[in-house]
Amino acid sequence: MTTTGKQNAPDTTTRRADATPGAIPTSLALAGHGPVVKTRKWLVDRMVARRSRQARAVLEAKPDLWALMTEAAAGTAVTGASYSDYLTLYEQVRARRPLEILECGTGITTVVLAYALMENAEQHGGAVGRVTSMEDDRAWFDVACGRLPDAVAGVVDMVHSPKVDGFYKCFRGVQYESMPDRPYDFVFSDGPDRHSPVNGDKLFNLDLINVVRRSETPVFGVVDNHYLTFYIMQKVFGVNLARYSVSHKLMFVGPVTRDDVRFLKKESFLPDLRIFGTTELKLRMAREDEAGG
Predict the structure, then answer these.
(1) Could you tell me if 278 and 157 lie in one domain?
(2) 182 and 292 housed in the same domain
(3) pLDDT digits 0-9 by tens, 72-81
(4) Beta-carbon neighbour count of residue 192 at 10 Å?
(5) pLDDT tops 90 at residue 212
């Protein structure tokens, strides 16, 4: 689920109406920013709103999927993801045809992912695949299990796990304490809630990196609207393999394997040293095949 629906996270978005699957986009404060930034945000907001309207129209034109999404949304207070998110996940699964999907953060998106898997199997034959849906909030997990439509329940494995602090190199994040060990080839990262269970610091979501570190085969990922997570993903995978889309407000990762996970170069800060003026230290990372650079 989106973190704005968690009990321990601030509510920064307008809640959707009951039984309506999509959330209203978030609004960011612009105090202290100049006219250039404000104009840029106005343009981005228009782009995002147009994408959301178009996505809702496409989803409503799929009556079976829309009915399942509405069934899962009914009677819950969770904000849900945006219509654009739902359509993006549906399109990604239909195009990439994964078999093992990891969803970090249970929600209405679970239904969308499962439905897309079932459509792939119906159209192309072969195994349906599976959605492993992770959730750290026990109360929401129980609600989500109760709201999961029977039509997709057979391809979804709902898993509750507490969140814990974790790390990759110098980056501290949050991750699920226990997760089924499966050959995931598609990851939707929207959880767990990013506040540290140790001291409440806002961190980033680490599980996608952990999956890729173990994978010899390509993994694709979609990362929801968490800017610190976006930043870390680009440091770990590079901007060519971790691409941010302004209109989607999502990051697209992949194809990546464990060979694409980068580490801190030993000579990181030497090029930054200045005899005169201010020294700005920059974080440089490399892959194994770039280690000698």
Answers:
(1) no
(2) no
(3) 988 666 656 8
(4) 26
(5) yes
